[in-house]
Design a protein that fits this description.
The protein is α+β, with helices and mostly antiparallel strands and about 190 residues long. The chain has two domains: about 10-95; about 100-180, General secretion pathway protein M, EpsM (Gyrase A, domain 2, 2-Layer Sandwich). Helix content is about 60%, strand content about 20%. A four-stranded antiparallel sheet has the order 1-2-4-3. The longest helix is centred in the N-terminal third of the chain and has 87 residues, at about 10-95. The N and C termini lie far apart (about 135 Å). The relative contact order is 0.08.
Length: about 190
């Protein structure tokens, strides 16, 4: 047989009851909060995994977009190289091209009144003119202007053109200096 003696004062008994009640509440709260903590931890880990996956996808998208931009830039670079090659080819052709516009402008400024040029032909650097002059003095004036012009040399007017005094059908040929054919007219 057992005998239980209760020697504790009532205040101590109340304290022990409160402590047991506190532990019971704490145990129940823990049992309630434990699944909640597990759920929060699961959500946090899912959030972390999704964030990692999103960052990887963003990085791969950025790489793919960067590659697309790199390919586009490569295409532009190839296009620019092609255009530059074509431009350099055109510049080479243009550098070898003779600029007759400047020479014709000079020739036009040298033609005096009373002279009409009806035909102009060129071969290499030689120019052949056929035309009409109202007077022999006008034709000689035209010849002297061409001789004085620093773009033309070896001006040749056949003597048969100088026999008639008025209404002369003339022929003339001269050489154009290469420097004048390379100018752009400025």
């Amino acid at each position: 047989m057992k005998i239980n003696l209760d020697l504790l004062p009532p205040s101590k008994k109340n304290e022990i009851k409160k402590e047991k009640l506190f532990r019971a509440i704490l145990r129940k709260d823990f049992l309630f909060l434990f699944p909640l903590l597990v759920l929060i931890m699961m959500l946090a880990s899912i959030y972390y995994l999704l964030k990692i996956q999103r960052d990887e996808e963003a990085a791969s998208f950025a790489v793919a977009q960067g590659q697309a931009q790199y390919q586009q830039l490569s295409r532009y670079d190839e296009d620019f190289k092609k255009i530059n090659e074509e431009t350099s080819t055109l510049l080479e052709i243009q550098a070898g091209h003779l600029q007759w516009a400047y020479v014709l402008e000079r020739l036009g400024s040298d033609v005096p009144a009373g002279i009409r040029v009806e035909n102009l032909a060129t071969k290499n650097y030689n120019v052949y003119l056929i035309g009409q002059a109202k007077s022999r003095d006008g034709l000689l004036d035209f010849k002297s202007k061409l001789e004085q012009d620093n773009c033309f040399e070896n001006v040749n007017v056949p003597l048969s053109n100088l026999v008639v005094k008025e209404d002369i059908d003339f022929q003339m040929d001269f050489l154009v200096k290469q420097d004048c054919l390379k100018k752009t007219g400025s």
